Amino acid sequence: SNNIMGYASTITVNGVRKEGFFIDGELCGKGTYTQQHCTIEGEWEYDEMIDGTVTYSSPEFKANEFHGRQNGEYLIGEWHKRTADDSYEEWISGVFTDTPLDSKATIKFKMPYLNSIREGIFAYGQMHGMGKFIEVSTNSENSIRDSVIYKGHLLFDKPNGEGKAEIYISNVPKDFKYWWYARLGVKIENIQGNNDVLIVLDGKFKDGVLIEGKVEASNGTTMHGTFKDEKLYDGVLNTRINDSDAKAEIKCSSGVFSSEAIIYYPDGKTEKAKYQDGNFIIVNEKKGKSNRS
Question: Is 178 exposed, middle or buried (0-12, 13-18, 19+ CB in 10 A)?
Fold first, then answer.
């Protein structure tokens, strides 16, 4: 009856059970709402949850619950999910409706080899607009660990537009002498030894890859220009020569590097060199002061 007042327990023909304090047939105060595979327990105000926990039961999940409040058709709070086999765990803070996440929110999830945090504006469960994500992953074959922090514009969960990414690579095996690394559309080659490496990508992204801007790596490699197929397409590459402090500057046009390079030494002197098959051949032994700023 709609005139129920005080503490009571009701059940409908559809199996929906309500138990708690009622005013005019609606839950007010502490109460529990139970239907198939779902239980809601908390504080109510005229059948609207103002503070409580929604628990879903399913063989797929060890944990699947929401804590927060209801505002009309919206749920505002945090959702926690954990699969039955412990292979995936997720925390989502934001505003929820019957459709996928559609609001400003924070998502945290972890898997055996990947942890992630995403903060920003979501539409239909994916990031759109300004946002930030952090991903920490471990290579299951060689234990190399990389941490990516991206801040900027996103579209469909991928960097799109202006943004900046910082990539930190650690736990490199001792037997690594020369190796390469690729992420977000840029490949860094000739990384030496088992040192930790920091790579910064700053510029314009499209569909999750850098297409124009600047790349700086702590191994001495810098690139300015446009990028395509994980390589510099039009621009300038500066790279450290072997284990020395000397750097070579090479121009790139339409994906082809010039055969001519300039070697810059720490004392300000320069030499011209030929660039062939990844090697530099000195062609001018006469050195002079560099006008490079």
Answer: exposed
**Distance (Å, rounded) from C-alpha 131 to C-alpha 160?**
11
Residue with tokens 């999750």: 208
**Which tokens in the block code for residue 21?**
């304090």
* Sequence-ordered list of residues with C-beta below 8 angstroms from that of 231, at least 6 positions apart, any chain: 187, 255
* Distance from the first to the final alpha carbon of the chain: 84
Task: Transcribe the chain into DSSP letters.
Answer: -TT--EEEEEE-TT--EEEEEEETTEEEEEEEEEETTEEEEEEEETTEEEEEEEEE--TTEEEEEEEEEEETTEEEEEEEEEETTSS-EEEEEEEE-SSS--SEEEEEEEETTEEEEEEEEEETTEEEEEEEEEEEEE-TTT--EEEEEEEEEEETTEEEEEEEEEEEEE---TT--EEEEEETTEEEEEEETT--EEEEEEEEEETTEEEEEEEEETTS-EEEEEEETTEEEEEEEEEE-TTSS-EEEEEEETTEEEEEEEEE-TTSEEEEEEEETTEEEE-----EE----
pTM of the model: 0.74
Tell me what pLDDT residue 288 has: 43
Instruction: Give the integer Cα–Cα distance in Å for 186 and 201.
Output: 8
| Segment 135-180, tens digit of pLDDT | 999 887 878 889 999 999 999 989 999 999 999 998 888 777 767 8
Question: Given this model, what pLDDT does residue 99 score?
Answer: 55
